[in-house]
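Bench notes, afternoon.
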Amino acid sequence: MKIVFMGTPEFAVPCLDILIKNNYNIVGVVTVADKAAGRGRQLQQSAVKKYAIEKGLTVLQPEKLKDPHFIWELKKLNADLQIVVAFRMLPEEVWNMPPMGTYNLHGSLLPKYRGAAPINWAIINGEKESGVTTFKLQHQIDTGNIVFSESVPITETTTAGQLHDLLMIKGASLILKTVKEIERKNTQGKPIQFIKQNDETATHAPKIFKDTCKINWNNTSNNIYNLIRGLSPYPGAFTEIIQNQKSLMLKVISATKELGESLHTNGWLITDNKTFLKVKCANGFIHLTELQLEGKKRMTVQEFLRGFTIQENDYLK
């Protein structure tokens, strides 16, 4: 069974790795083109490309997925099956190419959280569980028939980064289970027993934009706390600290929450300028524990307060 693997970030690497370690024939890897990054604008390879080169695999990096030359190269690989993990939306000419179909791993329990940022939105919305799902690709994004899904708990303190790492490992096991099932059914000459998605119960996880990341201090402590951990460590929830009529962007990496009453206005800063910094919000306070001031490195609140004195009329907006 000849397999083409498609993926880009670190999240996809364990899936490719587990297939290789289980002796599956990966005839090609499709990933994003190298991109200039950093101050030196040097070309950076995707995590999947770096891994694929280490393993001596054929790598394709199309700028456009409908490029005739890429389509020709892909057809030449003559794959039986395509596996997609954290890549791009594929045109039908690509996903419909292999005789066994194209299967995708998604970082949610479909049909919940269809879209680009399922990990972030599950935490932002205060979900108690998430998971991974494998499904067969079809026209509409994340709507195909499900092969398998597995859930994981989300605790009160789980961050997006922690859930990402958990689902990355869980997803690799599920990809292997899925490929084995496809292989087994093909050998038996029997169809896969799919689970059809119920569109009526579907929810969506759109791409995270800058506006999503701005903290509204008129919100409840719980909603703000979930936003912070749902965007931690990347792209990060942010606020603006107003001092002497100047505004500085402040990224909040981690925090804790506290219920309580106060006569202060929302966004008001309360601190001893040594050990703690908390912010008034709708029904309590957010204790800032790890911060990143514009142009500075990440630091604990104690490190922050050693170099930045909160004045009497400072506030966050």
